[in-house]
Amino acid sequence: MASPRLETYCCPNRDAATQLVMNFQPEVFCGVCIGSASISLLLTILQLLPKKGQSPRKMPKASSSSTILLLISICDILGGLGIIFRSSVWLGFPGFIANISVVNRTDVWPSTFCVGSAMWIQLLYSAGFWWLFCYAVDSYLVVRRSAGLSTIVLYHMMTWGLAVMLCVEGIALLYYPSLSSCENGLEHAIPHYITTYAPLLLVLVANPILFRRTVSAVASLLKGRQGIYTENERRLGTEIQMRFFKIMLVFVICWSSNIINETLLFYLEMQPDINEMPLKNIRSAALITWIIMGVLNPMQGFLFTLAFYGWTGWRVDLKWRKREIPWESLSSSTVGENAYPSPVNYQSNIHDSKKISTADSQQTDEAISMLSEGNTSSDERLTRSSPIYQGW
């Protein structure tokens, strides 16, 4: 799981709320994390592998959207590996982990492992949040035809730069002036929690807005392609809207428990004694959401692949080959002499307007295909409804 409580547990003088959740059935909790992360890891890799009987496809050359989706999955895979490694060490070497609670000690390896593994998990999931935000931005730019190969470099700089900067800044503030004296007050912990949850809250707030504007822009593109809004265009627009909805639904399901848990724990920290009887229900809710986090956080990787591509099946094709996206073969058929113009362009007496109209329709088809990447039915319906296809 990914929670700033992982870093605060590395402090020997940790707060009572952190002590409460981290000491609650640690063997069961680590087992849940290992099981959930392992299942998600295997299914995510299975989803990404090429399948037998499916039409080969490759990454689009004109957009970075599908590359971003792959990077999100990679971040989830690496974050899941960090969860498995950390939880395995906690289960296999309980004496090694117990040394974290010792203030005056000469062995620095327990604390080094605690801080390092926690930072690895936080960094990878934080980077995944930033990549998800970049996907929403890129989807809108693709429809507006403002994205291209150069934008992926900017996304890399923003994602990894901000993820590393916020992670290092939060850890530095938490462990200042030393690991043995951290968590003496909320002035150490609050900046760390803010830097951890800032990208998560950004996705929750900004992505729905960007997705909504993208869907509106897609509808305008589909209407303007032929001047009419047919049933095929309406279905394609609905599928793109549903894809965005599934992405946000997975994100909310996997991370809403973190926000609830952190709110409850902060409330407990404000109390003089968290073990008082009136706080029993709050303590129980905090422990329940803590276990839920251990299940849902690692499952994000697999659930995202379902939202991105749908279920791709079990039949893996290990013969790697060049993939081709339907709209690329469509584009190659129209290069050169525009041998297959649309019926509308065929009736036009102006040769230049034929080229412009065909090129504009082709760009529109490419932009929509990028957003519906992974949805075979959408790609086929787009191809059939394309003016270029109708001229064949």
From TrEMBL:
<feature type="transmembrane region" description="Helical">
    <location>
        <begin position="153"/>
        <end position="178"/>
    </location>
</feature>
<dbReference type="InterPro" id="IPR001414">
    <property type="entry name" value="GPR143"/>
</dbReference>
<dbReference type="GO" id="GO:0050848">
    <property type="term" value="P:regulation of calcium-mediated signaling"/>
</dbReference>
<keyword id="KW-0807">Transducer</keyword>
<comment type="function">
    <text>Receptor for tyrosine, L-DOPA and dopamine. After binding to L-DOPA, stimulates Ca(2+) influx into the cytoplasm, increases secretion of the neurotrophic factor SERPINF1 and relocalizes beta arrestin at the plasma membrane; this ligand-dependent signaling occurs through a G(q)-mediated pathway in melanocytic cells. Its activity is mediated by G proteins which activate the phosphoinositide signaling pathway. Also plays a role as an intracellular G protein-coupled receptor involved in melanosome biogenesis, organization and transport.</text>
</comment>
<keyword id="KW-0472">Membrane</keyword>
<dbReference type="GO" id="GO:0072545">
    <property type="term" value="F:L-tyrosine binding"/>
</dbReference>
<comment type="subunit">
    <text>Interacts with heterotrimeric G(i) proteins. Interacts with ARRB1 and ARRB2. Interacts with MLANA.</text>
</comment>
<keyword id="KW-1133">Transmembrane helix</keyword>
<dbReference type="GO" id="GO:0035643">
    <property type="term" value="F:L-DOPA receptor activity"/>
</dbReference>
<dbReference type="GO" id="GO:0072544">
    <property type="term" value="F:L-DOPA binding"/>
</dbReference>
<keyword id="KW-0458">Lysosome</keyword>
<keyword id="KW-0812">Transmembrane</keyword>
<dbReference type="GO" id="GO:0016324">
    <property type="term" value="C:apical plasma membrane"/>
</dbReference>
<comment type="similarity">
    <text>Belongs to the G-protein coupled receptor OA family.</text>
</comment>
<feature type="transmembrane region" description="Helical">
    <location>
        <begin position="190"/>
        <end position="211"/>
    </location>
</feature>
<feature type="region of interest" description="Disordered">
    <location>
        <begin position="371"/>
        <end position="392"/>
    </location>
</feature>
<keyword id="KW-1003">Cell membrane</keyword>
<feature type="transmembrane region" description="Helical">
    <location>
        <begin position="287"/>
        <end position="311"/>
    </location>
</feature>
<feature type="transmembrane region" description="Helical">
    <location>
        <begin position="67"/>
        <end position="85"/>
    </location>
</feature>
<keyword id="KW-0325">Glycoprotein</keyword>
<feature type="transmembrane region" description="Helical">
    <location>
        <begin position="119"/>
        <end position="141"/>
    </location>
</feature>
<keyword id="KW-0675">Receptor</keyword>
<dbReference type="GO" id="GO:0032438">
    <property type="term" value="P:melanosome organization"/>
</dbReference>
<dbReference type="GO" id="GO:0035240">
    <property type="term" value="F:dopamine binding"/>
</dbReference>
<dbReference type="GO" id="GO:0033162">
    <property type="term" value="C:melanosome membrane"/>
</dbReference>
<dbReference type="GO" id="GO:0005765">
    <property type="term" value="C:lysosomal membrane"/>
</dbReference>
<feature type="transmembrane region" description="Helical">
    <location>
        <begin position="244"/>
        <end position="267"/>
    </location>
</feature>
<dbReference type="Pfam" id="PF02101">
    <property type="entry name" value="Ocular_alb"/>
</dbReference>
<protein>
    <recommendedName>
        <fullName>G-protein coupled receptor 143</fullName>
    </recommendedName>
</protein>
<keyword id="KW-0297">G-protein coupled receptor</keyword>
<feature type="transmembrane region" description="Helical">
    <location>
        <begin position="28"/>
        <end position="46"/>
    </location>
</feature>
